[in-house]
Automatic annotation (TrEMBL), chain A:
Heterodimer of an alpha and a beta subunit. SUPFAM superfamilies: Terpenoid cyclases/Protein prenyltransferases (SSF48239). This is Protein farnesyltransferase subunit beta. Keywords: Metal-binding, Prenyltransferase, Repeat, Transferase, Zinc. Gene3D superfamilies: 1.50.10.20. It holds the Pfam family Prenyltrans. One of its GO terms (biological process) is prenylation.
From TrEMBL, chain B:
GO terms for molecular function: CAAX-protein geranylgeranyltransferase activity; protein farnesyltransferase activity. Keywords: Magnesium, Prenyltransferase, Repeat, Transferase. It comes from the Eukaryota. Its cofactor is Mg(2+). Gene3D superfamilies: Protein prenylyltransferase (1.25.40.120). Belongs to the protein prenyltransferase subunit alpha family. It holds the Pfam family PPTA. Its EC number is 2.5.1.58, 2.5.1.59. One of its GO terms (cellular component) is protein farnesyltransferase complex. This is Protein farnesyltransferase/geranylgeranyltransferase type-1 subunit alpha.
């Protein structure tokens, strides 16, 4: 039940599902089920988990069955054994939850950066994503990725298009999703030569061609206009410190727009759906991945406490985000009445830091809007792959770099207090789109309900750019110091 | 005869188990994996083709150093891409380019560059657009989760200026995946592009989709788009009443289904009606005086809002939120506490 939509131009998981033989997956599932059934009576840890699950379950069930409820029931049956017990036989932490399997995951990520077999041709246009997801996941797991610095610069110099921005690889047309992944990868590894490999002037012209008459952005020339375009464009302009003025040759100038941000907030507003969530484009269904894009975009346009209330119905948004947490699984789904999936640990879980920058903390309301520990449980218990490492959608699914990256980002959202504070980094982010440079991590949550040991805590991640804080600040600092293109 | 069946199953399990075990080991070792159908076709090479003799392909250039996440392309794919880069560099738009793009799409349907160039070629050559749609249909069915195919379709239908046959095609696609985001977004675009808001069949079809699965949120979203969202403006009283009654019937089927609860709130908001408009209905599913007989956590959620809007009824709103936090929706306890905090904040401010 992979969700039909990924943030990427093409998710590696759906592509790989087409490559891999389905029968193997089914076999894998039934194997683990049997192992679980063979375990006999519940251990003490299992009894504790079973009792916990009862405390987060909605006690109401409708008897009227439809396709949605059937698929949901089938899925719960597959997932629950992993939340109750430990069918993977992972070592447990002090809270009886599987420990984060760092070494296993790192090995899987190292493999993802190596050469893929011919069947992976389906990912030809998404190679920048594989690089970004893998490098970001490695840094989250505490791996030094500097040895990749030169190869990152080289990989993307091949994918940079003469007319500006990056494509999926050599000779491919420029695309905002590829450019987003390329710029983030370049920022993660850092270094002057790597930064210099980006042609910022042609990039600025390319972005100018993406700006549309209604305020939004298309993903490529002749391509679709959606909220990913808006978010990717803002991330790129902000990190590379590009001029906010539209180039003279930008078609949107004919519609009276002077800057990249003209009409953008209003366009994002139009993406808020009747149920409070955000959709790909005005009129479409609300969706978790698009919600993060919209909030990320607003958090770059200005301080969240100004931009969110200006452009969104905040109570309705919070209601919708909150409803995405699945009971009793604890992970998130992407849409109403859809299935839990580990990637929404970030797409929805990652929205909270931005929202909580507006709602809290105050004496009367807890700044704590969501169930962090339930999400951490889902990630550690149900999304870690035993065979070959990596994280995934849910038990029975194959792991990939995409799910590894966004499960880990979700885990960091569950572990850290990320705070917006204008006193942070007062020396940068004064000019163009400078708001996202004032975030900080205020350490790890230590409530009564934590489920992570010290060893399970990953590195902190910038809540808007989804790369390490240091990478964000070093990149912006470098381009702020640079004069001209 | 059950004894016989049991015996037969038991015997076959014993006899077949070594075979099954061997089979599963071989699958794991990738020895028995059946070849994908595409691999059985004869590969096509352009260097042997007279019609392409004038083209010098542009091969992939990795510039000496090994790029990250590279792909060991088949010779067939690699060669075809070399020819595509060459024709793109020459801005060639021709029948043979169409054939080339089709070939590459068959090997990699997720290649946006190829799709964009194909669309441009079609437009430059003035190819009959119906032919392109006829070619596109089976391709789309094979690759449900693909952005490029949908955008290409959008481009072609937009240029064609007719939505004829599109709804049938969409139905086929939704038959495979009734919540496919691309398909529903495409349908919303069709409604807008060809102004189908008032076409009775469109609303009837949407109602059928909701009837088939009342929990299909994509179908509810489409209904909202038809009735309010895509039109803009405030719905009149009669329309709001019709939608409220429609939603009530849907809620009665499965009260713990959040889609229609959200929907009715959306209608009330758009029509600028207070939430209390449906208070009596909500009380059928949740009543704070009967805390053990709650049939929908969403009703309790809405009841809290209705009480909060009433004069001097914050206490009841708090009771509803407490019930949600402690009993009916405990995974969101923090959120319900936050809502309670907002109530108190409002009281302090007043």
């Amino acid at each position: 039940m992979t969700d039909p939509l990924r943030f990427s131009a093409e998710a590696s998981s759906s592509r790989l599902e087409e490559i891999l033989d389905g029968s193997e997956r089914i076999e894998e599932l039934s194997d683990t089920d049997n192992e679980y059934e063979d375990m006999g009576a519940a251990t003490l840890e299992e009894q504790v988990n079973i009792a916990y699950l009862d405390t987060v379950r909605i006690p109401i069930r409708d008897s009227y069955a439809t396709e949605t409820s059937k698929v949901q029931d089938d899925t719960a049956e597959i997932i629950l054994p992993y939340l109750e017990g430990n069918p993977n036989d992972f070592p447990l932490n002090a809270y009886g939850i599987p420990k984060l399997q760092r070494d296993l995951h790192v090995k899987m990520l190292e493999r993802a950066l190596k050469t893929w077999p011919a069947q992976a041709a389906m990912m030809d246009a998404s190679r920048p994503w594989i690089v970004y997801w893998s490098l970001q996941s490695m840094t989250a797991l505490g791996i030094d990725i500097h040895p990749y610095q030169k190869r990152v610069a080289h990989t993307f110099s091949l994918a940079q298009h003469p007319t500006g921005a990056f494509g999926g690889g050599y000779g491919q047309l420029p695309h905002l999703a590829c450019t987003y992944a390329a710029v983030l990868s370049i920022a993660i590894v850092g270094g002057e030569a790597t930064y210099q490999s980006v042609d910022r002037k042609t990039m600025w012209h390319f972005l100018g061609r993406m700006k549309q008459a209604d305020g939004g952005f298309t993903m490529c020339e002749g391509g679709e206009e959606d909220i990913r375009g808006a978010f990717c464009a803002m991330v790129i302009i902000s990190l590379l410190n590009l001029p906010l003025d539209l180039p003279q040759d930008a078609p949107a100038r004919k519609n009276g727009f002077m800057t990249f941000t003209d009409g953008l907030g209003k366009w994002i507003s139009r993406c808020q759906s009747w149920d409070g969530g955000l959709s790909a484009a005005p009129g479409n269904e609300a969706h978790g991945a698009y919600a993060f894009c919209g909030l990320g975009c607003l958090a770059i346009l200005g301080p969240p406490e100004e931009t969110l209330p200006d452009y969104l119905n905040l109570p309705l948004l919070v209601h919708w985000l909150s409803s995405r947490q699945c009971s009793p699984e604890g992970g998130y789904n992407g849409r109403t009445n859809k299935l839990v999936d580990g990637c929404y640990s970030h797409w929805v879980g990652g929205c909270w830091a931005i929202v909580e920058a507006v709602t809290g903390p105050s004496e009367l309301t807890s700044s704590h809007l969501w169930n962090r520990s339930a999400l951490a449980r889902y990630i550690l218990s149900a999304c870690q792959e035993k065979k070959g490492g990596g994280l995934k959608d849910k038990p029975g699914k194959h792991p990939d770099a995409y799910h590894t990256c966004y499960n880990l980002a979700g885990l960091s959202a569950a572990q850290y207090k990320y705070v917006y504070d204008e006193n942070v980094n007062k020396d940068i982010g004064i000019a163009n789109l400078g708001a996202p440079y004032h975030w900080k991590s205020q350490g790890v949550y230590e409530d009564d309900d934590v489920v992570c040991d010290h060893e399970d805590v990953i590195r902190s991640i910038h809540p808007v750019f989804v790369i390490p804080y240091r990478s964000v600040y070093e990149c912006r600092r470098y381009f702020e110091a640079k004069e001209g293109f | 005869m059950p004894v016989f069946h049991l015996l037969r199953d038991w015997l076959s399990a014993i006899i077949l188990s070594p075979y099954r075990m061997l089979q599963s080991v071989l699958y794991r070792l990738n020895i028995l994996r059946p070849l994908p159908a595409e691999n059985k076709k004869m590969p096509k090479f352009y260097q042997d083709d007279e019609a392409w003799a004038d083209i010098e392909p542009l091969p992939q250039d990795d510039g000496g150093m090994h790029p990250l996440a590279a792909i060991a392309y088949t010779e067939e794919y690699s060669e075809a891409m070399g020819y595509l880069r060459a024709v793109m560099a020459n801005s060639e738009f021709s029948q043979r380019v169409l054939g080339l793009t089709e070939h590459i799409i068959s090997m990699n349907p997720a290649h946006y560059t190829v799709w964009l160039y194909r669309a441009k070629t079609i437009s430059e050559l003035g190819i009959p657009l119906q032919d392109e749609i006829a070619w596109l249909n089976p391709t789309a069915l094979k690759h449900l989760k693909n952005y490029q195919i949908w955008h290409h379709r959008h481009t072609i239908i937009d240029a064609l200026g007719s939505s004829e046959g599109e709804t049938d095609f969409i139905n086929t696609m939704l038959g495979q995946d009734s919540k496919n985001y691309h398909v529903w977004s495409y349908r919303q675009w069709l409604v807008k592009r060809f102004v189908l808001f008032d076409k009775p069949e469109e609303l009837e079809w949407t109602a059928d989709m909701i009837e088939a699965d009342v929990r299909n949120n994509s179908a509810w979203n489409h209904r909202y788009y038809l009735v309010v969202g895509g039109r803009g403006g405030k719905p009149n009283e009669e329309l709001a009443k019709r939608e409220i009654e429609y939603t009530k019937a849907a809620i009665r089927k499965a009260p713990q289904n959040q889609s229609p609860w959200n929907y009715v709130l959306g209608i009330l908001r758009a029509a600028q009606l207070p939430k209390s408009t449906i208070k009596d209905f909500v009380l059928e599913f949740a009543d704070i005086n009967k805390p053990d007989d709650v049939y929908s956590s969403h009703a309790l959620d809405l009841l809290a809002d209705i009480y909060a809007e009433e004069e001097n009824n914050k206490g009841n709103a708090e009771k509803a939120l407490d019930l949600l936090a402690t009993k009916y929706d405990p995974i969101r306890a923090n959120y319900w506490k936050y809502r309670k905090g907002l109530l108190q904040q409002a009281q302090v401010a007043a």
